[in-house]
Amino acid sequence: MTIPLKDKIIYGPVNSKRLGRSLGINILSTNEKICSFNCIYCQYGITKRSFGSFIPVEKVEKALYDFFANPVRIDYLTLSGNGEPTLHPEFDKIVKKIKEIRDKYVPSIPIALLSNSSSINNLSFEVLKMIDIKIFKLDAGTEELFLEINRPIVNISLKEIVKGLKKVSKRLPITIQTIFISFGEKNNYEKEALKEYLLRIKEIKPAFIQVYSCDRPVAQNNVNLISDEKLRELEEVINKKTKILTRAYLNVPLEIRLGKK
């Protein structure tokens, strides 16, 4: 079971556990998922490719102006959507345009990025500085778990991702987001898996860590979320071991996940 793709450029505001009333900005495509990973817990199902007919900068610009012609209250402008936003070949131009429009209409509203970290080594510091909240994925501390959970369809290793995150974190505050799950007889939060994860976190030195589980329907049957009790335990352990501010975002009832409440 998966959820439908976003069929618009601007969507929401979405009631986000992490970002409040988040106005989604989908810059990829309105009819297909474009991503560099094929994560086992993805709410949009299987990834078929990491390229496609990306939405032009001009259409993103028009969609934002149309929204601000009749705005509603929002807490964040969030680059997310149907896959990995940093894959867009004109990502830099789009970020600059979003900031320009944001500064004109709602200068106090932060711009957020939700990224799987696969393009971390290609992102410019100039553009990253324009993004107020930079949220990057890290679901595993070993290459083996990285390949099993995130299943990259591009040529990228966990080692390269950690190197890139470490480099960015030295100059700009970043947030690491981690989904903790069990799949089959494996998981990414017990014993050696957690130990290796903590080592990677200590290398990267992010400003903030967000931990949660898969609170939306997923395509793969053997993927299971973990309990709120376990999430709270992980929050405490990660914070204690790394001395980095960590917050657990607890599970949401199914009817809320599906937008029925």
Multimeric state: single chain
From the spread of the alpha carbons, the general shape counts as globular
Separation, N- and C-terminal Cα atoms: 19 Å
* Strand ordering within the main sheet: 1-2-3-4-5-6-9-11
Structural class: alpha/beta
The average pLDDT value, as a whole number, equals: 94
CATH class: Alpha Beta
Tell me the number of helical segments per DSSP (H or I, 4 or more residues long). 8
Helix content: 25-40%
Please summarize the sheet with the most strands.
8 strands, mixed
Total number of domains: 1
Q: What is the third-level CATH name, the topology?
A: TIM Barrel
CATH architecture classification name: Alpha-Beta Barrel
- Proportion of beta-strand residues: 15-25%
Q: Compute the number of strand runs.
A: 11
**What do we call the CATH homologous superfamily?**
Aldolase class I
* Low-pLDDT windows of residues: 254-261
Using only C-alpha atoms, the radius of gyration works out to 18 Å
Order of helices and strands: EEHEHEHEHHEEEHEEHEH
